[in-house]
Amino acid sequence: MRFRQADWSEPLIFELGSEGRVGYQLPGLEPGVRGKADPDSLVPASLRRSEDPGLPEVSEIQVLRHYMHLSQMNYGVNSGLIYPLGSCTMKYNPVVNEVLAAHPKILGVHPMQSEDSTQGILGLLFNLKRYFLDITGMDDATLQPAAGAHGEWTGIMLMRAYHKDRGELGKRTEVIIPDSAHGTNPASAHMAGFKTVEIPSGPDGCVDLDALNAAVGPQTAGLMLTNPNTIGVFENQISEISGAVHDAGGLMYYDGANLNAIMGWCRPGDMGFDIIHSNLHKTFSTPHGGGGPGSGPVGVKEALAEYLPIPGIAERGGRFRLDWDKPKSIGKVHGFHGNVNVALKAYTYMVAMGGEGLKESSELAVLNANYVARKLSKVKGYELTYDPGKPRKHEAVLSASPMLNDTGVSALYVSKKLLDYGLHAPTTYFPMIVPEALMIEPTESEPVEALDAFIEAMTEISRLAYSNPEEVLSAPHNTAVTKLDEAKAAHPKTICLSWRRFCALLRDGE
Question: How many Å apart are CA 292 and CA 23, to the nearest integer?
Fold first, then answer.
């Protein structure tokens, strides 16, 4: 086997050490400090504890090893293959990104400084915007949004401002969204005050043109679409789709979550899209997850540029300045210039890769996804749905429905069993139009050896499901916390946030 069995057991720090063991040494106080050498005397009596706080009695090396091991129990893209976050690219974050972001001349800049004293940072952000426009085929952009969903909301607010300025907001009340869309799409549309109209996918996983033509009309504000879509298939009728929406007076919105599949090969702006958000913290390698930080710039065609958030960053005569002169702007959507630290990591990645490098990275991402798709679609229990003969782009969505029907082992338990091999599970049960979905997006970061290890683990799980299904249904076995009662674990009365409560549960055998 190329993969290893994981073993992440770790005692609580309160279970380590022994009575009287000390892992710290307070600095001595010289006589004369406020006239007294006793540390206790420096704390007012009203603030002193009446009893010891009950801290663990461990040595320094025990503390160091304990927290080092806990950090190793956290899984990330630097730890192993395929660390997903929804339908998200999670690629390697090169160390050079961190070097630039941690440079003293970057960290020392304050956003309240004058334009004259921040020409360097403004120049970097201006160039980042320029590269972003080159990659996406748009005319102008804002770097303010702090994440993809925030960028989505900003983009839809731009759509709203556009229709309002034309006196059509009252009648253009609907945003069309395919049934394969990311969940943030309808949420963003609703937050901007629009109704959503869902249209089905065709047998190939792409937009059903007949359904689209039936849905568009004078009430249409726009269509939200990602291309390639969440099935991993490129919408090859995109010209007809954008034509139908534009003919009805609507706008085309590009959800840039899947931009990693097409960088350097084609541009959303050339497909007919009017608005795009992209996740710099995904496509361009910077870290994300755990609530942030992220960066989701929004690009637009010229007709929508005047509605962009203020201030923009402009260049005139070799000098960079903040552009506040946008009377039709939707206003600010983030303090100052957005998440600059994240944006500069993406800038570093773009410069280091260059145009040809970005194009090659997309090529390798597509190659890796198809390699996994073709290999696993031949393994008993997994199937590639929606025109399986059609090439995938950045991700492959497999269905474990045959395995569930044959053995009772669902996609959920395939994912849980992967943890026993030290592998993070792919996104499960999305997109929802694929039953028992397993969404696998290896990106260009992974070498073939890592892909083979994942394929071997998935193959072994299939063998176990058909020979000894209970072995999979009771997984995971080798993690710090084994199989949970998921309903009980999610119930607010049983969520355990206290080590004392956890110890009590262990004593009670729960």
Answer: 34
How many Å apart are CA 227 and CA 255, to the nearest integer? 8
Name beta bridge partners: 252: 223
Residues β-bridged to residue 312 = 323
The answer to whether 211 touches 180, Cβ cutoff 8 Å, is no
Say which residue the tokens 């609703």 belong to: 190
Q: How far apart are CA 375 and CA 240, in angstroms?
A: 33
Domains and CATH numbers, the chain: 116-352 (3.40.640.10)
What is the C-alpha separation between 447 and 105, in angstroms, rounded?
35
Can you tell me the distance from the alpha carbon of 312 to that of 317, in angstroms, rounded to the nearest whole number? 16
Residues 6+ apart with CB under 8 A from 215: 174, 176, 197, 199
Q: Indicate the SS3 state at residue 369.
A: helix
Whether the ω angle into residue 447 lies within 30 degrees of 0, i.e. cis, is no
Cβ(132)–Cβ(347) under 8 Å?
no
Residue (of 447, 506, 460) closest to 480 by Cα position: 506
Q: Please choose, from the candidates 230, 264, 254, the residue with its C-alpha nearest in 3D space to the C-alpha of residue 397.
A: 230
Tens of pLDDT along the chain (510 residues) come to 444 555 556 788 888 888 889 887 766 666 555 555 566 777 888 898 888 888 899 999 999 999 988 888 777 777 777 666 666 777 888 999 999 989 999 999 998 999 999 999 999 999 999 999 999 999 999 999 998 899 999 999 999 999 999 999 999 999 999 999 998 999 999 999 999 999 999 999 999 999 999 999 999 999 999 999 999 999 999 999 999 999 999 999 999 999 999 999 999 999 999 999 998 888 998 776 555 678 999 999 999 999 999 999 999 999 999 999 999 999 999 988 899 999 999 999 999 999 999 999 999 999 999 999 999 999 999 999 999 989 999 999 999 999 999 999 999 999 999 999 989 889 999 999 999 999 999 899 899 999 999 999 999 999 999 999 999 999 999 887 788 777 777 776 666 666 665 556 555 555
Q: For 8, which DSSP code?
A: -
282: closest CA among 134, 444, 142? 444
Q: Which of 482, 510, 480, 477 is nearest to 496 (CA)?
A: 510
User: 448-467 and 411-418 helices cross at what angle (nearest 10)?
Assistant: 120
CA distance 124 to 111: 14
Q: Which is nearest to 400 in space by CA: 379, 425, 420, 372?
A: 379
Cα–Cα nearest to 436, from 407, 469, 411: 411
- Give the Cα separation of 508 and 113 in Å (integer): 59
- Report the C-alpha dihedral over residues 350, 354, 359, 363, rounded to 10 degrees: -80
Nearest to 288 by CA among 70, 496, 133, 76: 76
